[in-house]
Amino acid sequence: LAGCDRASGATSPSSGSLTSVAMTFQRATIGAVASSLLLQPLDVLKSRQQYIAAKTQSKPPGVWALAQATVRNEGPLALWNGLGPSVIRVSGGVGLYFSTLHFILEQTGKRATPKWPVDGGGAAATPAPPPSVSLAGSRSTTVMWAGATARAAAGIVMHPISVVKSRMETYRNHGYAGSLAALKTIARTEGVGGLYAGLGAALLRDVPYSAAYILFFKELLSLANRYGQHKDGKHGMPMYITFGAGLTAGLAATVVSHPFDVVKTRLQLDRLPTPTTGVMGRLLGVFGVLQHVLRTEGFAGAWRGLPLRIVRRPIQTAITWSVYGLFAGDQGLLGILSRQS
To answer: Which of 107, 255, 284, 334 is most enclosed, with most CB atoms within 10 A?
Structure first.
């Protein structure tokens, strides 16, 4: 009878899971949009630095000089070129990433929960052992795999918008009436290959970044759980902890993944009427372009625009996680990650 009562009053686990995943998507997009509006000028300057270096085969102007020239020649709003596709890409991509990550970790966590035998009185026959080193390692591997999978899924879905964003950021007269018009034009004139130009480089940049980032982030949250005062009433983790953890994790992951950001930008711009590398980008592919950059521009060329990306990417990710944590508290994805220790 007790079992019947529980069954009749229970909410479907899958229904509750989907609801929490949907809430994660909604909360994540709020922080993503806020960070995109604030940091778009850094993305514009990074893309232009990479393009100028490829086009002229020389060192591009510094950040401040480039910003001044952009404002002087095109007006201050030029620093927000590509904002429309940027907001669409970041909000949609982050929402998909967070919700997919939430779903994967929630489902793997349910399957990994040990079910200990009970005696006739309902008490555990043996106490649950403490987490072992192998279990901790397994959880870390699961978190990295989940982060990589979620980023790959979001990246593939949102990549056409990323192509539009790069072109609008880089060119003053890009000729597109808007994001949708740009997608239609690229699809008509360049086909599917144009919409997915640079996808390989983008995945090689973002998938390792996300795997490393989510692992660093989880470990930093775990340290805060064990050694710090991480509770702030009903709001769960205070914003300074999620911001600090997100910033630190983002710095490490950004440096490692940056060369593929350079390659991605060049491949995306290579199909335009004024190509950066002629047919070379299309023929040689991701690693061919990377080798070309290293051979012609040296080590510095592969990390072109890194200072701007170091400022933008970790701060953008930290803002997104902080705003998400502000709304979600210890519920949802932050709660799942903090328990993965």
So the answer is: 334
Tokens of 275: 């190509």
Q: Which two tokens stand for residue 214?
A: 């989510």
CA distance 174 to 330: 44
Query: Of 310, 295, 335, 215, whose CA–CA distance to 257 is shortest?
Result: 310
Residue 156, token pair as written in the block: 């593939």
Beta-carbon neighbour count of residue 75 at 10 Å? 9
Digit-coded pLDDT (tens) for 27-75: 888 888 888 889 999 989 988 988 888 777 778 888 899 999 999 999 9
Interior CA angle at 220 toward 214 and 224, to 5°? Answer: 140
pLDDT tens digits, 304-318: 888 888 888 888 888
Q: Which of 49, 87, 93 shows the shortest CA–CA distance to 210? A: 93
Residue the block writes with tokens 């300074």 = 240
Mean pLDDT lowest among 155-159, 232-236, 238-242:
232-236
CA–centroid distance for 108 within its chain: 21
The count of other CB atoms within 10 Å of the CB of residue 323 is 22
